[in-house]
Amino acid sequence: MENFESVLPVTDEMLSFDKFKEGVLNDYYIVCLSRETSLLGRKEVLTGKAKFGIFGDGKEVAQVAMAKFFKPGDWRSGYYRDQTFMYAIGVGKPKQYFAQLYADPSLEREPHSMGRQMNSHYTSRNIDANGDFLDLVQIKNIATDMAPTAGQMPRSLGLAFASKKFRNVNELKQFNSLSDNGNEVCFCTIGDASTSEGHFWETINAAGVLQVPLVIFVWDDGYGISVPREYQTTKVPFQKR
Ligand SMILES: Cc1ncc(C[n+]2csc(CCOP(=O)(O)OP(=O)(O)O)c2C)c(N)n1
Questions:
Q1: Residue nearest atom 21 of ligand 1, based on CA coordinates
Q2: pLDDT score, position 29
């Protein structure tokens, strides 16, 4: 099944039972698929077939729900645990996920970074081959993931602040392929440990002061990158000095 984007709509209208069932099963499929890619990816790292990996297990259901509110023109500016969200909005595919894990340099197989980024680091294109802007209003925009924890926070603020400017500054109205009159929303994700970074608090403060369309999702898993989940239950005996 190549096309597994979430299809169950968020709507006030009454859904038929069949439509509801189809949507729920589709979402369940995305959740299971994403979990399997995490487990398989981790095995690939632990058996030495990929050198490094970070995976999004534990956040599947929340991210399918989040994806239902993400529309073309919106921006996602997050971090490396968002694979389920990517699958659910139809932008990331499992084959691409593994191509990135193996650092495949093919643009076709690994369009997010051509093997140059760590795995689960997503990107959408915003310029064409001539360097001209694409119609960003029609695109599900993904700002490239970056390695420093909380580095996405100031950028997320900037994206949301841009929308406010597109709404309020008359001279910017002409750029209607960059913004739908400022109606887009920036979806920002971050891990709970990274909320200790100053960037996080500065962004929260600035977003409140500037009143910008920014939604921040804090994933509270708490598992770091270097200790695979399978090892989390291993008890390390206390060493007496
Ligand atoms: C500024 C900075 N310091 C340290 C690291 C190393 N590092 C990468 S992920 C991570 C843990 C982040 O934990 P959390 O924010 O809770 O996200 P999780 O991976 O648990 O989802 C750390 C310390 C980094 N990438 N950037």
A1: 191
A2: 95
